[in-house]
Amino acid sequence: MGNLLFSTGLIRTDATKSDQVNRRHLIAKTICNGITYYYTPLTGTECLAKKCQDSAAVCPTFPVSPSAGASSSTLLSDSPSNTSVSSQNQSYSASTSRPLLLFFSWLGAQPGGMAKYRDLYLDRGMDVLLVQSSVMHFLWPRWGLEYGLEVLKILENPPFAGRVMLVHASSIGGYTFTQILTHIVQEPKKHAGLAQRMMGHIYDSLVVGTLEHMAIGIGRTLVPRFESFVKSTAMLYFWLFKTHTADFYETSIQVFHNSPVTAPALFFFSENDAMCNTAVMEKLIDVWRQRGVDVHSRKWKKSIHAAHLRCHPDDYLSTLQHFLNSLPIASCKKTI
Known about the structure:
- Helix content is 43%, strand content 16%.
- By secondary structure, the chain is α/β, with parallel strands linked by helices.
- A 9-stranded mixed beta sheet has the order 4-2-3-6-5-7-8-10-11, sandwiched between helices. The chain has a two-stranded antiparallel ribbon with strand order 1-9.
- Mean pLDDT is 78; it is low at 1-22 and 54-93.
């Protein structure tokens, strides 16, 4: 069946120093179902810079999916309950000059786990757009492509249009990001600007290998106690609906191997990961390097799928910091 790429799993992270810094002033803006925008109010320096650039600055607009209903803006649960409306309105004017971290989360991610990554990037002066995926986006790829197009349209409209971006894809997030790449490849003239805006991309524990690796990922993620049964059922499903599943996956793999995003990349993976064929992963990295992509990687002999930060916190963070500091994004050049 060829080499296949898909990401499923769960990440647990240690608390970061930003917990006490950002939460108090963090704003969460629901764009549509599964997509949330996080940002902090402008600092004094940013306000001054913004006034210099545009004395008649207008609050950004947020595209909303028709199926999602009206978008809503809410402070996080630990924000002060007496926050005024004017304070919230002020926070809406988050500087559109800030880099945007596009975070594709793992399947079934919980708020606490995602917050650790979110705060990590907020602490480095970036806004965060969280994109969560459903297992059905993978099991029925046409829905995944539709979702990818929805995310793509959001990124091409205010307040995200034109902004420098960094991608961090974890677990199923790697698959979802590939669906966006598919649309870029299919209509390069229309979406070329988006690929050029991406200054770097990070992948944590991609599931790389065969259909069997993908089936194992589904079983371990959805019903760990019945992993073998789910794996067998998934393999049967892939066989019965090959033209609607496996064939789509093959296309996605080709798109990923020849990704239109050629910015520096970072891969985290381990040799004992049952959902990752190490040889295939290293071959992928070699292919990208041959294409001229600056690829960084960190491989461990023993770790836990999509939980490298928990298993190797110092190593993970130092590798990530070194990578971010190498990017041409001023706000990334800080200490984690």
